[in-house]
From TrEMBL:
It comes from Pseudomonas rhodesiae. It comes from the Bacteria. This is DUF1993 domain-containing protein. InterPro entries: DinB/YfiT-like, DUF1993. Gene3D superfamilies: dinb family like domain.
């Protein structure tokens, strides 16, 4: 089963609809955005140095007091990239301590996750649209998804929320980044 890219353009009919694999809709997207996030973090660190700002002021910045700080936003974005990819491939999700406190720590975390998802092959993920994925099993927040629904309605939106929030935190704090930085190379 493939994801159908029809419906957005009335000129595309079901017969002429283009298909995209589950792998193509996940791993390359995660890689693009994690590389962009890494570049944005580099700019943030350079900004802190150039402006004599204590790096922790940016690393612990929040958009609002009840929101997670930058460090946690990056950790969660990375967790979704590795977790979604691993679950779709039906392999164990790598466990990390989430103890990063510096820009260098965050860069190392991103590099580790990029290496992990880069090790996944299309054949490990393609065709897994119908597998059952259970999040928070055995808890009141338990949810059950098909592989495709998990990626498209849960995993990607969560991932983009945290990447976007990390970007917004830095932009709000004066780091000169724009849409091109957010998008990265594509």
């Amino acid at each position: 089963m493939a994801i159908i890219a029809a419906g957005c353009n009335p000129a595309i009919t079901d017969e002429s609809a283009m298909t995209i694999s589950l792998y193509a809709a996940s791993v390359p997207v995660f890689k693009q955005m994690l590389n962009a996030l890494s570049d944005v973090l580099n700019k943030a660190e350079a900004h802190a140095t150039a402006k004599n700002i204590e790096p922790n002021a940016l690393l612990q910045a929040r958009l609002f007091p009840d929101m997670f700080p930058l460090v946690r936003q990056v950790q969660i974005a990375v967790d979704f990239a590795k977790g979604v990819s691993a679950r779709l491939a039906e392999i164990e999700v790598p466990k990390y301590d989430d103890n990063e406190v510096t820009f260098a720590d965050l860069q190392a975390l991103i590099a580790k996750v990029l290496a992990f998802i880069d090790s996944l092959k299309p054949e490990q993920i393609d065709g897994k649209e119908g597998i059952e994925i259970v999040t928070r099993p055995g808890t009141p927040k338990e949810k059950r998804f098909s592989g495709q629904t998990y990626l498209l309605t849960y995993g990607l939106p969560q991932f983009f929320f945290h990447v976007t929030t990390a970007y917004a935190l830095l932009r709000h704090n004066g780091v000169e980044v724009g849409k091109r930085d957010y998008m990265g190379a594509f």
